[in-house]
């Protein structure tokens, strides 16, 4: 019999908060500066999820830092304008928090930007543990970020569930030994996530109540 899930590890972007438009426009703004009119929306979808350095290294290894700086400047300036909350997220996270679930954010974004998104959507009060890109040596799908979050929560992998919208989240969970859940509202699509064989696919954030077998109140 599998151990009861007590711990929930969430990716942030594209999972709890809708940063899809912000990320896509940030990539297009940055890349069009260097390569005018060469990149469209569909071209940047594969860049969503991995650390910025990994993406820009493949495009132009000579200007990685410069491109990251341009991306982050635009991203921060437009953050509050373009970021939205996914339907039902606040109520679901609040209910799970009140029922005593241990929760953390495990992101490939730097910590300050993660905190900015949590505060904007008023989710910050539910998460005592945040693991950002600058908190680890290796980003997801390496297990290090998940292991760090579990350690801070005093939890073990067999009682944890990693929830995310990208392959890095599912593979990170598998590498760390947690259960995994993909979200059907991923910008890359439900079918894309399904190929990484998560334990669950959430059609709506409230599906967590059924998986955890708890009430919504």
Instruction: Determine Rg (CA atoms, Å).
Output: 17 Å
The biggest beta sheet is recorded as: 6 strands, parallel
Strand content: 5-15%
Helix proportion of residues, in percent? Answer: 40-55%
Distance between the termini: 27 Å
Helix count equals 10
Helix/strand/pairing category: alpha/beta
Q: What is the N-to-C order of secondary-structure elements (H for helix, E for strand)? A: EEHHHHEHEHEHEHEHEH
Count the beta strands: 8
Low-confidence stretches: none
Tell me, what's the shape? Answer: globular
Strand order of the largest sheet: 5-4-1-6-7-8
Please, what is the average pLDDT? Answer: 94
In short:
The chain contains 10 helices and 8 strands.
Overall description:
The protein has 217 residues and is of the alpha/beta class. It has helices spanning 20-34, 41-44, 52-59, 64-82, 89-98, 111-120, 144-153, 167-176, 190-194, 207-212, and strands at 7-10, 17-18, 84-85, 102-106, 129-131, 160-164, 179-183, 200-202. Strands 5-4-1-6-7-8 form a six-stranded parallel beta sheet, sandwiched between helices. It has a two-stranded antiparallel ribbon with strand order 2-3. Helix 1 runs antiparallel to helix 4 (64-82). The longest helix is centred in the middle third of the chain and has 19 residues, at 64-82. The model has no long low-confidence stretch (mean pLDDT 94).
